[in-house]
């Protein structure tokens, strides 16, 4: 059976509101339909176990039962899951205990697949008798079998795919609190491994999975480069991410990469490009109630607000909040999620830009309570937006002091170009005649201090 989409699909299906409380069997059914995997692999993925964890649990079960695990390895478990090999009867019983189901539900009932007669196939004796048949027929059949072998062949095992997926998920979690300069070599290393695997001809489902991994990794690389002020390289990596996402054919991923790419023009201009990318993402999402749809609407709201389109911004942020309430936002410690604190960050940016300081402060107060001690620059961005609110209220000295404190409170490794650019926006919204005031000059001096290495 073709190897399918894997852990990403499993996490997506499990997180859907309609699947909350669903049994493992129901999730396994959905995974088998979605990803075209064997029942055995569907049961593992439905529990969000990696192959390594499944093997570890299998061994622990054998210890509890006082039986020999029989030399179980990740590769051996993988061959059972792909159907390349069939476990012995005693092992089938152990797998049934491991997954708390029966052999039929695991797709392991009956004899090994090689012993099951398949209608339409001929025996070796029959094939020999037919050898003197039409040479053209033999040529056509040989060519077809060769093509089928190529389509079925893959240079990457299920275990390798699982490991690549787990490494990318780990990178997404690290990215939340790790300085961008530290993340870049880790991400580049992961992408190189994915590239080497994708360079060989893979079955379509595997290639789709590799394209998705490439899109996510490339987006994180682009984001890190953007934070470090490497704008040309960031734009190029966002282009690579869009190409990989389009290659995956996944509309959710295609939309998500475009929303992420909109951050570059949002912080560095032009704002029209940021609004255009978010609108494109919303069109791809077709206003489905997904977390990416909420993210796209919130990002469009921020961009429209800074362009002065108050009505459009308010409509977009309200739409984002409605969608967000109807979907599963994902874990807060995942850079690929859109949890409540990030929605509030975008709400803060929208209301700050249109000058509604009351709504902006309310969002800022809610958001800061949701951030852990170890995090990136988002709390500082909220502080800078609070400073902008003070400027709207004509509290110049207090605004500059808060902006300076927000900027300096960030650890030096996170105090990158993007944070300085946003801090400069505090000065940029001032009337020209006020930019020479002492508090403003003091803030400018602080922002001129060396930032994190580029």
Structure description:
It contains 23 helices and no strands. With 454 residues, the protein is an all-alpha fold. Helix 2 (24-35) packs across helix 3, helix 9 runs parallel beside helix 11 and helix 18 runs parallel beside helix 20. The two termini are 47 Å apart. The relative contact order is 0.06.
List the helices and strands and how they pair.
Blueprint: H1 7-15, H2 24-35, H3 39-46, H4 51-65, H5 74-82, H6 89-99, H7 124-129, H8 135-152, H9 158-175, H10 180-198, H11 204-227, H12 231-248, H13 251-261, H14 263-268, H15 271-285, H16 291-307, H17 310-325, H18 340-353, H19 357-368, H20 378-392, H21 396-408, H22 417-428, H23 438-447
Helix pairs in contact: 1-2, 2-3, 4-6, 9-10, 9-11, 10-11, 11-12, 11-13, 12-13, 13-15, 13-16, 15-16, 16-17, 16-18, 17-18, 18-19, 18-20, 19-20, 20-21, 20-22, 21-22, 21-23, 22-23
Summarize the structure.
The chain has 23 helices and no strands. The chain is an all-alpha fold and 454 residues long. Helix 9 packs antiparallel against helix 10 (180-198) and helix 22 (417-428) packs antiparallel against helix 23.
Keywords:
454 residues; elongated
**Nearest-angstrom radius of gyration?**
27 Å
Mean pLDDT: 85
Kindly estimate the percentage of residues that lie in beta strands according to DSSP. Answer: under 5%
Helical content, roughly? 55-70%
Which secondary-structure class do the elements indicate? Answer: mainly alpha
Uncertain runs with pLDDT below 50, 5 residues or more?
112-131
Query: Shape from CA axes?
Result: elongated
User: First CA to last CA: what distance?
Assistant: 47 Å
The run of helices and strands is: HHHHHHHHHHHHHHHHHHHHHHH
Main sheet makeup: none
- What's the helix count? 23
Work out the number of β strands: 0
